[in-house]
Structures are given as structure tokens and as C-alpha cells.
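Researcher: I'd like a candidate sequence for this fold, 315 residues long. If you have to choose between options at a position, lean toward the conservative one.
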């Protein structure tokens, strides 16, 4: 009797058992010595492939011959025996090669997956998926001055119905390539208002800005620090006039940007009793930072521009 040690694929045992029955049924008792030799050859062949099938005892020719009849086989029986034995070897060999090929391919895939997980994915990625690494920051949205840029990341999910990527898939930050150059209008000639009565704390008066030229540019520079048009609705009868003019909107923060705003005057509870469009830009010139305005001319008096203090930063 033979003992099989180790894990041998079940189909190997089936094919060997079937082959044994086939040989036994086809051959006569006179061929038992030959049958035992082929039986041993098949088992040794399988053990050579897997290294885990070994006979418990070696076949001793003398002992075997003493237990089996030694009468010979006929020619036809020998041919049939040889063909069936060869067929058994071919079947077992084919199955062995298929088994080895499948196991080798499976191991290769496992090793390949391990490399890709360690090299291509971000740290901490679980078997269910997760975030891949962040991309590089994109280009700035503005060629000069302050803009924005983004970066993104991709989610690797094994199950589309299960979210394995908490958080956002993109981030945004501010960016500055270079400071924008001053607007061309900053190098044109302009007029300067420095009237002290243009302050909000100044009482009512009869001042009027009906001498403004709408094609010209103007700058406000008061000795007390006011340097731009006030951007909230003031009370009537202040700023040295009956209806002070104010700006609805914000000033540009970048150099060279010309912005459209609304100039308006209050009357009673209405802050837009009169309203016209004007332009404003931020300039830097001769070591100074200031606003320039293309102002709207009031339709009648008494209306004049009211001022406020703004921190324009250092040049």
C-alpha cells in the first residue's frame, strides 16, 4: 500500500484512481507484475512534479515476484497495456502542467498587485479604496495681481455604491504671479481735490461740483488724510453741501484695474435720489498709491463729492 503525504489536487487522485481501474479491468492476472511496475511509475512521476507524493515502501523486485505470478502476457495484452499506461502518463502530465501554470500566474498577479499598491497609491489606502495623491497646483487664474489656482485628487473605489473617500476632491488657494503694472491712465494728467469741507464731519454748505469734466480724471487728497470717495450713504447736509455724493461699490484692490461704480446722492430716506455711472482705478506713481476717478457730473446743485480715508498700502 502507498501513502500520499502533503496536499495533492483532488483531481489528480481521481484521474489516477480511474486510470488504475481501467488498467486493472483491461489486463489479465498474468500481467500483474507489469501492472505493479506501471502503478509505481505513475506515482513516482506525480511525486517528481509536486514533491509531495512518496511511496511508503520501495517496490522490491524480489518480494514482488514472490507475491505475483510471473506468467507472461500475450502480445495483444502488452500493446493494450502499453497504450493505456502511456495515456495515463499523458493525462497526469497535462493536469500537472495546467496546475503549475495556474499557480504561477496567480502568484505573479499577487506580487504585481502588491507592487502597484505600494508604488502607485497614497499611503493608508485600504483594500476597499481611498484617495490617490494630490495633483500639482494648476496655473494661476490671473496673469498679474491676485488670482486663484486649484489642485485635484481622484478617488479609487472598489464598490461604487460605498463611499470610501471622505472629504473634497479639490482645493483652491490664492496666487500671485506678478503685480499688475499701473493702468495707462495713471500716467495721464489729472486734477486733485483737496477741499477740507469734503469730510463727512463737515457741516452743510452750498458747495457744488457742477464744474467737473466727465472726460477728465480726478484725485482726492485732503490734508486730514481723506483720499477717496466715501462708499456708504452719508447724511444729507454734510460734507459742505446739501446732497453729498457717495459711491455705491468697492474700490479695486489691484493696480491697473479700472472698475465701474455708481455715484449717488441721498434725499430723505432714499440714498439713490440721483445716480450716475463713474470709473475708478488704483494707481502707483512716484512712490505714491492713490485712486483716480472719472467722475459723473451732477445734474444740478447743491451736490458735491464726499470723501473718506482708505488704507491703500505701501507702494
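Model: Candidate sequence:
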Amino acid at each position: 500500500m502507498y501513502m500520499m503525504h502533503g496536499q495533492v489536487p483532488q483531481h489528480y487522485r481521481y484521474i489516477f484512481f480511474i486510470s488504475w481501474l481501467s488498467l486493472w479491468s483491461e489486463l489479465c492476472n498474468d500481467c500483474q507484475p507489469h501492472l505493479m511496475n506501471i502503478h509505481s511509475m505513475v506515482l513516482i512521476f506525480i511525486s517528481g512534479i509536486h514533491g509531495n507524493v512518496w511511496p511508503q515502501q520501495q517496490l522490491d523486485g524480489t518480494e514482488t515476484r514472490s507475491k505475483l505470478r510471473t506468467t507472461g502476457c500475450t502480445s495483444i495484452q502488452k500493446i493494450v497495456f502499453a497504450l493505456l499506461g502511456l495515456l495515463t502518463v499523458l493525462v497526469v502530465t497535462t493536469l500537472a502542467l495546467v496546475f503549475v501554470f495556474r499557480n504561477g500566474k496567480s502568484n505573479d498577479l499577487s506580487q504585481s498587485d502588491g507592487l502597484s499598491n505600494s508604488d502607485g497609491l497614497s499611503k493608508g489606502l485600504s483594500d476597499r479604496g481611498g484617495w490617490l495623491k494630490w495633483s500639482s497646483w494648476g496655473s494661476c487664474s490671473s496673469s498679474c495681481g491676485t488670482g486663484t489656482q486649484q489642485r485635484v485628487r481622484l478617488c479609487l473605489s472598489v464598490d461604487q455604491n460605498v463611499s470610501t473617500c471622505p472629504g473634497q476632491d479639490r482645493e483652491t488657494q490664492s496666487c500671485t504671479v506678478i503685480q499688475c503694472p499701473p493702468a495707462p491712465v495713471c500716467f495721464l494728467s489729472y486734477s486733485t481735490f483737496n477741499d477740507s469741507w469734503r469730510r463727512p464731519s463737515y457741516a452743510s454748505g452750498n458747495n457744488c461740483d457742477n464744474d467737473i469734466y466727465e472726460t477728465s480724471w480726478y484725485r482726492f487728497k485732503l490734508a486730514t488724510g481723506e483720499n477717496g470717495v466715501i462708499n456708504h450713504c452719508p447724511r444729507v447736509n454734510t460734507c459742505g453741501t446739501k446732497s453729498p455724493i457717495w459711491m455705491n461699490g468697492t474700490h479695486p484692490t489691484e493696480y491697473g484695474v479700472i472698475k465701474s461704480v455708481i455715484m449717488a446722492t441721498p434725499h430723505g430716506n432714499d440714498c439713490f435720489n440721483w445716480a450716475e455711472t463713474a470709473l475708478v482705478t488704483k494707481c502707483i506713481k512716484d512712490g505714491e498709491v492713490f485712486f483716480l476717478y472719472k467722475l459723473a457730473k451732477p445734474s444740478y446743485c447743491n451736490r458735491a463729492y464726499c470723501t473718506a480715508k482708505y488704507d491703500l498700502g505701501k507702494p
